[in-house]
Amino acid sequence: MKQSEFTTNPKVSASLCAMLGEANKNPGKPPVLHFRAVGGGNPGSQDPTVSLLVETQTGDQQLSDLSSGHCQRLSDQFVSLDLPMSKVEQLIQEPHVERIQTKRKHKLVMEQALEHANGISAGERDFFESGSGVYIGIVDSGFDLSHPAFYDRNGRLRVDFLLDQVGGKQEFDRDELEQKWTLGQGNFGPGFDSNGHGTHVAAIAGGTLFGTGGWEGVAPDARFLLVKTNMFDVDEGVKWIFEKAGRSPCVVNLSLGSHYGPHDGTNAEERLYNQLSGDNQIIVVAAGNEQEKDLHVGSWYFPEQSNDYVFDVLPGNDNTDPGVVVTGWYSERDQFDLFLGTPAGQFIPFPSQGDPGRKYSNNVVSIDVSRTYYQWSQLIQCRLELSFDRATVSIDDLYGWTLRTSSKQLTAGRFDAWFHNSDFARFRQHPHLEKYRTVGIPGTGSGTITVASFTSKTQWTGDQGFAEDALSLAGRLSRFSSLGPTRDGRWKPDIAAPGHMITSALADGSRLSKAIERTLVNQRAVTIEGTSMAAPFVSGVIALMLQKATASGKNLNPVEVKDLLAKSATKDWFTGREAWTPEFGRGKVNIPEVLSLI
């Protein structure tokens, strides 16, 4: 293999350092996986851009002058910036720039197998609140605004504003949306949901009653602020929602995430959300569906212990090259030797902390390895990236890679590694293969409400008839729901809600509409599962909480919301009586009980 080096910098994310090294070596030819896993644009140009989250006190005008046209202040400390690669070095040299991180690509937190679901029925409510006077913000794949779940009893759209990040970051108000969308017609207007995920999620949180099954969201009188996201600028979407909500109480739902970070709440996006949330501004995040995805290895080591973690890269599909990013983390007080083993048996050493990163390549695979200091957690980050050319790769090239770790000096003694997301690679069976510590980012942040999923029912009906999930048990944690705690031992998830077998709104013409075993086409409903479905359930509950608190002249901040959810949570045979568990958090959400405490 050919070998080269790239410079590392402790205030620059490892992915950006690798991109800089590639761009300097091959101008106009950024590595494919970088622009798939992290934010980037126009990769074929001579000066490609990269999407960055910058932690800085530098003036906005100075950053705007560097940018390629997009520069947005998200908080006093963070700026979202699109920057030509040729100007990244100049940004690094700015004395007031503390940290530069590439935008990570988020993944929708829906179970891809589409296994089973059940409806949320309006039925008889045991509470008065319906979300009136509260905004529900949804950042997701898009929205079918011809669906009746988004209209009030007078036939008016309940969406006050929509931001389409995919369509040039265009903003639409309600009048414009009503002109371009027609109730019940299934036409494709702004923010069209080709996936179906966002439509389903939004209707769980606050959809109007629809269908003969009586499906209704938790807060059907709330107003919507919607963002069709490009999966990179989720942070900008959250900021935009809170700005549009103004002084009105607002809860934002994020049924998406990634595993590209230390899983201890110090990721830049998580620290940003700590700043954006506050009184009557609450952010809810899905815990993730990675309990059984084999994406995490972690353990406490003893001196001179060595382990080989064998993993297989998944083939991908016709539209994407196979590849994966692995990030490993250990305390700065410890010393580890790390190696990447190829399927052919060659072992490539990771560089020492502070040394340049290394790049290896041939006509099949490109390999980046680096080791940098991560000051926000006093951790050492070891980063490995594999990018394959699907035109030349074979299965033998993808299977049988090894991450070798060997402890040399230990004080803290723990090592953890995650793939950047599931469905890119899998670790093979190993005693250190962990289902715990699989809650995704930004769900490990301290400022968000993180939601696990449990099974409410085990049956559903589609156009092909009755169906049942014989492997699930009502009341038990959903078998996909990610488990806590965080890497630093904090209690995440916070709460559990129904997310298994959920029937909600179907986006016409979406990918989900082709899952005929799950759809009720005439009723415009579809049944799917995931912590993506549990999170908006809790977002709807929080909308009810904000409505009641506001009516009483109170404000609720994230800490108070968590405390109320914890005090009111249901404890049963499945959750146990402990104050917190890695499966259910503080217990199962209980709407009447939590409202009675406000």
UniProtKB/TrEMBL annotation:
Keywords: Hydrolase, Protease, Serine protease. One of its GO terms (molecular function) is serine-type endopeptidase activity. One of its GO terms (biological process) is proteolysis. InterPro entries: Peptidase_S8/S53_dom, Peptidase_S8/S53_dom_sf, Peptidase_S8_Asp-AS, Peptidase_S8_Ser-AS, Peptidase_S8_subtilisin-like, Peptidase_S8_subtilisin-rel. The keyword Lipid biosynthesis does not apply. PANTHER family: CEREVISIN-RELATED, PEPTIDASE S8. Belongs to the peptidase S8 family. This is S8 family serine peptidase. It comes from Acanthopleuribacter pedis. The lineage of its organism: Bacteria, Pseudomonadati, Acidobacteriota, Holophagae, Acanthopleuribacterales.
